[in-house]
Amino acid sequence: MSDPIRLLVVDDHPVVRNGLLGMFAGDAEFEVVGEAADGAEAVAYARALDPDVVLMDLRMPGMDGVAAIRKLAALEIRAKVLVLTTYDTDSDVLPAIEAGATGYLLKDTPRAELLRAVRAAVRGEAVLSPTVATKLLGQVRAPAKDDLSKRELEVLALIAKGATNREAAAQLFISEATVKTHLLHLYAKLGVSDRAAAVATAFARGLLR
């Protein structure tokens, strides 16, 4: 049996933290290794406990979630950050993704979907709730559908070969956050909402061979 997925739960409300602990309790596939009540604690615990995934609230006193995500990226903490928040406003979503979050879910996400999202985050896959994905695509939608930049095509080609965001970033000497931004832009230009559809559409239109 493989080792459990190690989780750090970050939220300033004890009731929310307890609820999340309850979701993962009794499932041998997951282990909650720590809890934090703000961004500063999240960074400290992530460094000390080496979790696989950090479930990160955004609006917290002191250091907020976006600042904590940026700090974790700057420290090159290996943990994937999965935002779990009540808010899906434009001012919350895009900064969190650009800071380096692997995914963005709302707190009303059903348990089964949350567990799937954590598994996907460990694999380096982007996870977005449907309303969040729609908002992101609306923000970055460009009028020219097929006018992909050279860098967007490079990212798309690597994704088509099965590269994760981290692997694509390493090969192109850019950050994972930049890869995510390129992906969001090319999704909008191609009129799709995920990696598989982007690759399929790109092959159909002759953008990839």
Structure description:
With 209 residues, the chain is of the alpha/beta class. It folds into two domains: 5-137, Response regulator (Rossmann fold, 3-Layer(aba) Sandwich), CATH 3.40.50.2300; 141-204, Winged helix-like DNA-binding domain superfamily/Winged helix DNA-binding domain (Arc Repressor Mutant, subunit A). Helix content is 52%, strand content 14%. It is built from ten helices and six strands, in the order βαβαβαβαβαβααααα. The chain has helices spanning 14-24, 39-49, 65-74, 90-99, 111-122, 130-140, 150-160, 165-172, 176-190, 195-204, and strands at 5-10, 30-36, 53-56, 80-85, 103-106, 127-128. Strands 2-1-3-4-5-6 form a six-stranded parallel beta sheet, with helices on both faces. Helix 1 links the parallel strand 1 and strand 2 (30-36). The longest helix is centred in the last third of the chain and has 15 residues, at 176-190. It is globular. The chain starts with a strand and ends in a 5-residue tail after the last helix.
